[in-house]
Amino acid sequence: MEGILALSGGVGGAKLASGLAQIVPPSELLIVANTGDDFRHLGVPVSPDLDSVMYALAGLSDDIRGWGRSGETWHCMETLTSLGAPDWFQLGDRDLATHIVRNQALLSGRSLTEATAELCQRLGVRHQLVPMSDQSVATTVHTDRGAMAFQHYFVREQCNPLLQSVSFEGAEDATYNSRIDDFLIDYGAALVVICPSNPMLSIDPILALPKMRTLLENRPVMAVSPIVGGNAIKGPAAKIMGELGLPVSAVGIAEYYQGLVDVMVIDRVDEPLASNIEALGMKVCVTDTLMTTSEKKRQLAQYMLEFVHYFDH
Prior knowledge:
It is a single chain. The chain is of the alpha/beta class. It has a single domain (4-311), classed as 3-Layer(aba) Sandwich (Rossmann fold), CATH 3.40.50. The chain is built from 13 helices and 14 strands. The protein has helices at 11-23, 48-58, 75-82, 93-107, 112-122, 150-156, 178-186, 199-207, 212-217, 237-243, 250-257, 274-278, 294-311, and strands at 4-8, 29-33, 39-41, 44-46, 128-131, 138-143, 146-149, 163-169, 191-194, 221-224, 227-228, 231-232, 263-267, 283-287. Strands 5-2-1-9-10-13-14 form a seven-stranded parallel β-sheet, sandwiched between helices. The protein has a three-stranded antiparallel β-sheet with strand order 7-6-8. Strand 6 and strand 7 form a beta hairpin. Helix 1 packs parallel to helix 2, helix 1 (11-23) crosses helix 13 and helix 4 (93-107) crosses helix 5 (112-122). The protein is globular and about 60 Å long. The N and C termini lie close together (10 Å).
């Protein structure tokens, strides 16, 4: 099977993307990042998921904090705070430089795709990373405290409000990134990999783009569960699933993706759930999914591709 189209959110998706990048040639991997989280803060455009993947591919991500760049300093943020600027969303000095360069590119008329490509090139990233769309799509979280922009819910409110539903403002008028069509022309039998990102907040914005789901339904799709042993590896996925009435387990993830995903990748601790997932019409790949080191990221990616290759022949 040639060509891999990976759909990614932030931290978990970035880890698997870096694992895939270790074993897949640059021309054969296209990573599509969620931009529903994007917003403008302190005058600059911030693309959290795009940047998480970009930093991971460049070997610059802060694996201890789980987001942003390693070796970060905070002098600008500290000064801004002392001057009365909002400090609920932290931007490190190195990270802020990324947003300033992106802002310059966008103001000069370049698209987000072009700006991302320029940043990747300057950071030494050889694999293809693109935003899901060059049009603005804003994830809005509807809660018991009213509607909130994603970052207000996720960062400022620490996901504490009770989530009732999620919508994606502007998605119906946006188009998915044209680089996806270009990639699929070259690799018609491309495998689609849904990274272990939050299905409701990180993957659904991508799938909400017109014709995107239809495009994927005609191809083999493999998804990695972000829920291991009934808990989210990172972020609020477990909390949100419970609030939406979904089983907080790998089975709940499989049910959410039913009709789209052909192969579910689950952790060894969830192996007893394999038969329940198979009953939904999916194949199940059981392996270690906790990507705590660079080698474990590579091993997960390698095992996934070997699993698909076995069933493809």
